[in-house]
UniProtKB/TrEMBL annotation:
One of its GO terms (biological process) is fatty acid beta-oxidation. GO terms for cellular component: mitochondrial matrix. Key enzyme of fatty acid beta-oxidation. Able to isomerize both 3-cis (3Z) and 3-trans (3E) double bonds into the 2-trans (2E) form in a range of enoyl-CoA species, with a preference for (3Z)-enoyl-CoAs over (3E)-enoyl-CoAs. The catalytic efficiency of this enzyme is not affected by the fatty acyl chain length. It is found in: Mitochondrion matrix. It holds the Pfam family ECH_1. Transmembrane segments: none annotated. It comes from Drosophila ananassae. This is Enoyl-CoA delta isomerase 1, mitochondrial. Homotrimer. Pathway: Lipid metabolism; fatty acid beta-oxidation. Keywords: Acetylation, Fatty acid metabolism, Isomerase, Lipid metabolism, Mitochondrion, Transit peptide. It catalyses: (3Z)-dodecenoyl-CoA = (2E)-dodecenoyl-CoA; (3Z)-octenoyl-CoA = (2E)-octenoyl-CoA; (3Z)-decenoyl-CoA = (2E)-decenoyl-CoA; (2E)-tetradecenoyl-CoA = (3Z)-tetradecenoyl-CoA. The gene is Dana\GF15726.
């Protein structure tokens, strides 16, 4: 009887810390049952194979533990995620490129296809793969003086359709096309104006609070009805992705291993290193 009461009170249903991997940590808010998934691969949460595998397993763990929602954020102070780890794409062989891309696909489908309410507390820059993660979520709160966007064309690579779908769900077609072809990074203020983010916040705490409030708006909605409705909106993108999944890996490998694309990546990396030494 006592055990039943405890369960009703939720006292042992939700642990305060669920799981950690090498590059992620998950905390459950005891009051709300919402999971905060923090990415922690310093300095910039660049997405290598291990990081992507950790992220995927944390997302599924949160989903399987029947949390009430998922908030994605960064444990680093000024970067949400710098996107794919260019060091793992530069001078990599075809097998390594294929594995990296497959893991990026796996994370995207885990997050984009999650039935839970999802929100991104963007407490730093979110270029490329960082923007991909943020736009796979349903809501975004972001700190000022940061950038977000899909800048792939600047690296000589093309964002395939599935990768653009979060962007396309949010931005008007004309703006999305222009931003993607330009490889544009939006400042926080521009992102709010364009509708790419929902709120500008002054601290990570405020970002988390806004995300919690967003997830709280579903408190009185039947979770199954909510989740199926969300997935109806996303079904066409998911179906299309599943159809081309393998070919998409082959296309990426073929593009990313071209000498001219490797050269752009090498130069880009060198510029990044020069900038960080200044
Ligand atoms: C078909 C293809 C579709 C492709 C889909 C996804 C592709 C990608 O995700 S490609 C990755 C694109 N990412 C970027 O263009 C971001 C590059 N980084 C930055 O612009 C800045 O680092 C950032 C604004 C995120 C943060 O700026 P700072 O806080 O000033 O940090 P630093 O620039 O000094 O960087 C610190 C340190 O990290 C290294 N770094 C940064 N980004 C990456 C990265 N993506 N991969 C690997 N390494 C990265 C940077 O070189 C510095 O290293 P050190 O010089 O050794 O300190």
């Amino acid at each position: 009887m006592m055990h039943l009461n405890l369960l009703r009170l939720g006292a042992c249903r939700v642990p305060s810390r669920l799981m950690s991997t090498k590059s992620t940590s998950v905390e459950i808010n005891d009051k709300t049952g919402v999971a905060i998934l923090s990415m922690c691969r310093p300095p910039v949460n660049s997405q290598n194979v291990q990081f992507l595998r950790d992220l995927k397993s944390s997302i599924y763990e949160i989903e399987n533990n029947k949390s009430r929602g998922l908030i994605l954020t960064s444990a680093n102070s000024n970067v949400f995620s710098a996107g794919l780890d260019i060091l793992e794409m530069y001078n990599a062989d075809k097998e390594q490129l294929g594995t990296l891309w497959t893991e990026l696909q796996n994370v995207w489908i885990a997050l984009y296809g999650s039935g839970l309410p999802t929100a991104a507390a963007i407490n730093g820059h979110a270029p490329a793969g960082g923007c991909l993660l943020a736009t796979a979520c349903e809501y975004r709160a972001m700190l000022p003086n940061c950038v977000i966007g899909l800048n792939e064309t600047q690296l000589g690579i093309i964002a395939p359709k599935w990768l653009m779908s979060g962007y396309q769900n949010i931005l008007p077609q004309r703006l999305a096309e222009r931003a993607l072809t330009q490889g544009r990074l939006f400042t926080t203020e521009e992102a709010l104006k364009a509708g790419l983010i929902d709120e500008i916040v002054n601290s990570k705490e405020e970002a988390l609070e806004k995300c919690l409030n967003f997830i709280g708006t579903f408190a009185k909605v039947n979770p199954l009805a909510r989740s199926l409705t969300k997935l109806q909106f996303r079904a066409a993108n998911i179906k299309e992705f599943e159809k081309i999944r393998q070919k998409d890996v082959e296309d990426f490998v073929s593009l990313a291993s071209r000498p001219e694309v490797q050269k752009v990546m090498g130069d880009y990396l060198e510029n990044l290193k020069k900038k960080s030494k200044k």
